[in-house]
Write a structure and sequence with these properties.
It is built from seven helices and eight strands; from the N terminus they run E-H-H-E-E-E-E-H-E-H-E-H-E-H-H. By secondary structure, the chain is an alpha/beta fold. The chain folds into two domains: 22-75 and 119-239, Isochorismatase-like (Rossmann fold, 3-Layer(aba) Sandwich); 78-116, no CATH class. Helix 4 packs parallel to helix 5 (216-225). The chain starts with 24 loop residues before the first strand and ends in a 5-residue tail after the last helix. Residues 13-20 and 239-269 have low confidence and may be disordered.
């Protein structure tokens, strides 16, 4: 499994040289860890491997908010191959994500990627796996609920005209930093992270708590170009004194100088 690293400051640990970094409230965003993506109709290889590191993150207990997104489709959803008379999509993984042209009720041509029927509201495939730890104070966001719109991002439908309640919830909690985990890296995790950047959050992806359906490297390059930071769960959790460099901005001159001195002796603030 890829374990991308960069030199980003950890949002999970204290930072004695750059104390202003600790002022940001932190949220854990768990994307679509649902049965259909792990062992059901749209299962991705090794998807079950994201559960243990996700549980490790939440058990660290340093988050001001934990939110889970759930793909929540009605029957006959626009993304289902069977809706458009292509039930064979369900049987051949090589056909997953096939582009299909169709006309919406207003007669406007749309392009839709087709997938097997999945995450139908309240079905077993829609549920979280039993091994995913949940908390009484967790918040839930349901996406893809409109039969005529798909929604990869936990913030918006794919047409970017209909917004979920995620941003409003995070704002109400004062969240500034997001760590994102879940399924899958190159689809729903990627689009959620990109929208989070647009919304002004500082975004981190725990690379060992997500897996890709397709091209990992292409998605990782796109995310890094837009300012998304990546690192392993262990790297986030390993050093209680702070395991990453100082932030690029908002450090005073003494803090910046002190960081550089520490880096020269192979420490980080």
């Amino acid at each position: 499994m890829p374990t991308e690293e960069d030199d980003s400051p950890s949002p999970l640990v204290g930072n004695p040289v750059c104390p202003q970094y600790d002022n940001n409230k932190r949220g854990l965003l768990i994307i679509d860890i649902q049965n259909d993506f792990i062992s059901g109709s749209l299962a991705t290889p090794n998807a079950n491997d994201v559960i243990i590191p996700t549980n490790m993150l939440r058990n660290k207990g340093v988050f001001d908010d934990i939110t889970l997104s759930m793909d929540s489709h009605p029957k006959d959803h626009v993304s289902f191959g069977s809706t458009h008379g292509h039930p064979m999509i369900n049987d051949n993984m090589n056909d997953w994500g096939t582009e299909y042209k169709w006309s919406d009720p207003n007669g406007i041509e749309q392009t839709q990627m087709l997938w097997p029927d999945h995450c139908v509201w309240k079905s077993d495939g829609w549920n979280n796996p039993d091994s995913l730890e949940l908390g009484a104070n967790d918040h839930w966001v349901f996406k893809g609920t409109d039969v005529l719109r798909d929604s990869y991002s936990a913030f918006f439908d794919n047409d970017q005209t209909s917004e979920t309640k995620l941003h409003a919830h995070l704002q109400s909690k004062g969240i500034k930093d997001l760590i994102i985990v879940g399924l899958v890296f190159d689809v729903c995790v990627k689009f959620t992270a990109l929208d989070a950047i647009k919304k002004g959050y500082r975004v981190y992806i725990a690379s060992d708590a997500t897996v890709a359906f397709g091209d990992w490297d292409k998605a990782a390059d796109e995310l890094k170009e837009e300012g998304v930071r990546m690192g392993t769960v262990q790297k986030y959790l390993s050093n209680p004194a702070g395991s990453f460099n100082c932030p690029e901005t908002n450090a005073d001159s003494f803090g910046e100088l002190h960081c550089k001195v520490l880096l020269m002796v192979r420490f980080v603030c």
